[in-house]
Write a structure and sequence with these properties.
The chain is α+β, with helices and mostly antiparallel strands. It has helices at about 1-10, 75-115, 120-130, 155-175, 205-215, 235-245, 260-265, 270-285, 295-305, 310-315, 320-335, 340-360, and strands at about 10-15, 20-25, 45-50, 50-60, 65-70, 140-145, 180-185, 190-195, 220-225, 255. The protein is globular and about 80 Å long.
C-alpha cells in the first residue's frame, strides 16, 4: 500500500512503530530513519533527518499504532498524507479484529500452561501451533501499569482497560517482529511468553512499545525472566518475571530477573508486617530521631562507609559533624559501626525500609 501511494504521489514515505523501528518504507527515504522516539515527533511539518517532512500519528482506539513520515514533493502532499493515514487506520482496525479471536485462544492456552506446567508435553501440539518453538529458548514477561497501589472498583476497571491496551500493543510488537507468543491479562498485570529469535534482546524495545501504548503520564513496569528451554519451567519463569517487575525502584522501567538484588529476592518471601517488625527492631531508634536526619546519615554511610570526608561533602556537613552523628547512631542502636556484621544487618534494615516505602507497606 505504501509503495502504491508513494508511486502515485512521488513522495518518499516511511512508517515507524511506536518503539522506533521502521516497519515499512517506499520511495526516496534514503538514510537512517529509525532510532528516534516516534512518540515525541510532533504532528505536521518538521525537519526530520535533515529533510523537510510531514508527520502524521496513526492512532486507533486510543492507542498509537504508527507514525507516518512523508518527505514533501508538492502542493498535494497533505492530501496524500491524510489518505495514507486513513488507509493505515483501516488496516490497523482490520488486524485488530482478526487478532481478537486469536488473543482469546492464546490467553486460554497460556492460563492452562501456567496452571499445570507439568502437563506441557500434553499441550505441546497446541503450543507449537501458537508459535512456541520447542528447539529454542523462551522468556516470560510481566507488565504492570499505573501507580503501584490501586484501590476502588472504578480504579480496577480503568486498570483492566489499561492492561488490555498494553497486551494488544505487545501482541502487535511480537507479530511485527515475527515472534511466537502467548499472552494473558490477569488482575494486576499482563503476562507474555515470547519464543524464538534472541529473546534477551527484546527488553528495551518491548518496554518502549508498552510505554507508547500507556501514554506519557502512565508509568509502566516490565519484568522479564531468565531465558529457559524446559517447557515445564514456565511457572518458575513467570514468578521470576513478577519479581523482576516488582524490584524496580522507580515508578517505571524494565528489569531482568538476573539483575534483581538477591537481598530483595529474600525479603520478598516475608510478609510486610514481619519485615516492618525486623526493621524497627534493628533501626527503629534512629528512624525516630532528629526528624530523620540521623536516618539519612546512616543510609548514606551504608552506601559509602570508607571515605568520611567525601561523605561529609555529599551531606553538606563538616566531617566532625558526620563523626558526631555516627557516634550518636552507634549509641542509640548499641552497636559498633566498624563491625562488618553490624553493617550487614543495618543494610538489610535499610533495604527493608526502602522496599516497604516503594510498595506501600507498613
Amino acid at each position: 500500500m505504501l509503495e502504491a501511494v508513494s508511486r502515485l504521489s512521488g513522495m518518499g514515505m516511511a512508517v515507524l512503530s511506536p518503539w522506533g523501528e521502521v516497519v515499512a518504507r517506499a520511495g526516496d527515504t534514503t538514510g537512517r530513519l529509525g532510532g528516534a522516539d516516534p512518540t515525541a515527533l510532533p504532528e505536521g511539518r518538521m525537519r526530520f533527518r535533515g529533510r523537510d517532512a510531514l508527520v502524521a500519528r496513526v492512532t486507533v482506539k486510543g492507542r498509537l499504532r504508527y507514525v507516518l513520515v512523508a518527505f514533501e514533493e508538492g502542493a498535494g502532499s497533505l492530501t496524500w498524507l491524510e489518505l495514507t493515514r486513513s488507509l493505515l487506520v483501516a488496516s490497523a482496525l482490520q488486524r485488530s479484529a482478526e487478532a481478537q479471536q486469536d488473543r482469546s485462544r492464546k490467553g486460554a492456552l497460556l492460563a492452562e500452561w501456567l496452571a499445570g506446567p507439568q502437563a506441557a508435553p500434553m499441550l505441546l501440539p497446541r503450543l507449537v501451533d501458537a508459535g512456541i518453538e520447542t528447539e529454542s529458548e523462551y522468556v516470560v514477561a510481566v507488565a504492570e501499569a499505573g501507580p503501584r497501589a490501586r484501590g476502588g472498583r472504578m480504579a480496577a476497571v480503568r486498570g483492566q482497560a489499561l492492561l488490555e491496551k498494553l497486551r494488544e500493543a505487545a501482541d502487535d510488537y511480537f507479530r511485527t517482529r515475527g515472534y511466537g507468543y502467548l499472552s494473558e491479562t490477569r488482575a494486576e498485570h499482563v503476562v507474555w511468553v515470547l519464543s524464538g529469535g534472541a529473546p534477551h534482546a527484546q527488553g528495551e524495545p518491548l518496554f518502549l512499545a508498552l510505554r507508547a501504548a500507556a501514554g506519557a503520564d502512565v508509568p509502566v513496569r516490565l519484568g522479564l525472566s531468565l531465558p529457559r528451554e524446559d517447557l515445564t519451567g514456565v511457572a518458575d519463569a513467570y514468578h521470576q518475571a513478577v519479581l523482576a517487575a516488582q524490584s524496580l525502584a522507580g515508578p517505571e522501567g524494565h528489569a531482568w530477573f538476573d539483575l534483581v538484588d538477591p537481598v530483595y529476592w529474600v525479603l520478598k518471601q516475608q510478609p510486610p508486617a514481619n519485615l516492618a517488625t525486623m526493621r524497627d527492631r534493628l533501626v527503629g531508634p534512629v528512624k525516630d530521631a532528629d526528624d530523620g536526619k540521623l536516618w539519612r546519615t546512616l543510609t548514606a554511610y551504608l552506601r559509602s562507609p570508607d571515605d568520611l570526608t567525601a561523605l561529609a561533602e555529599e551531606l553538606h556537613v563538616h566531617v566532625n559533624t558526620l563523626r558526631y552523628r555516627l557516634k550518636r547512631i552507634a549509641t542509640l542502636l548499641g552497636v559498633d559501626l566498624a563491625r562488618p556484621e553490624t553493617l550487614a544487618k543495618l543494610y538489610l534494615a535499610q533495604q527493608i525500609d526502602a522496599m516497604l516505602d516503594r510498595e506501600g507497606g507498613v
